[in-house]
Amino acid sequence: MNKRSAEPFDLIIEPKQSVRHFWRDLWEYRELFYFLSWRDVLVQYKQTAVGIVWSVLRPLLTMLVFTFIFGRLARLPAEGLPYPVLVFCGMLPWHFFASALTESSQSLVGNANLITKIYFPRLIIPISSLLVGLVDFLVSFVILCGLLGWHGLWPNWHWLALPLLLLLACAAALGAGLWFAAWNVKYRDFRYVIPFVVQFGLYISPVGFSSTIVPAAWRSLYALNPMVGVIDGFRWAVSGGRTALSLTALLVSAAVSLVLLGSGLAHFRKMEREFADVI
């Protein structure tokens, strides 16, 4: 008997695995996660004229347009902050959320050849796609630091809240992305729905304006949009507490993000057995 064939298998694939086995498989395939994450980052900027500079140009141009429309023409309140700072603080978490949601929603269809050939935990694909948005976020954050320094706003203890707020944005983006990724495998109509959802979300989120213009009686309802709490919290942290932060609205947004993530994971696990056959 061949010596190699006599070696015991260290991975046994079984139907209807328990939750414990599911998370263990994710850890077993961590090297594939690293490879897919790095590949997605490289593909994002490969054969582009200015490369990673796009991650700087996009929020900068959007900031200029929003500052002109909301700050100069509409003269909306800026809560004591320079209006470009108010807008840029909203642009960063929103662009991360929009990029992560779009990439994760389309990740399964984009990796159809891989899914139909070998077994691996399918959840690795949408999670790895979040890394592209995270790279853009970190590059733009450096620009934000320069903008804050220009206006005399320096780091303080409020910045300790930024990692938690980024995790909430990840939870909201991945939760919604898992729902759309699973639906997109079966119904390709969602490739048209996702850009509309992202564009609509930009209008109803406090990116170019402060959420204080929403009447106080409606703010808890407004916070059902999970990015409301994230953006308000991000502004509060970066500005050193100068802008208003409603703890109730933040908790509502955090609860919606966690529910979205939990339900997205459950839906994804329920549908993943059919991905290789349907895609």
What would the keywords be for this entry?
single chain; 279 residues; mainly alpha; globular
As a whole number of angstroms, the C-alpha radius of gyration is 21 Å
Structural class: mainly alpha
Strand content: under 5%
Low-confidence stretches: none
Order of helices and strands: HHHHHHHHHHHHH
Helix content: over 70%
**What gap, in angstroms, lies between the N and C termini?**
39 Å
Instruction: Please work out how many helical segments DSSP would assign.
Output: 13
Shape: globular
The largest sheet, given as strand count, sense and whether it forms a barrel, is: none
Outline of this structure?
The chain is mainly alpha-helical. It has 13 helices and no strands.
Describe this structure in words.
With 279 residues, the protein is mainly alpha-helical. Helix content is 71%, strand content 0%. The protein contains 13 helices and no strands. The longest helix has 28 residues, at 83-110. The protein starts with a helix and ends with a helix.
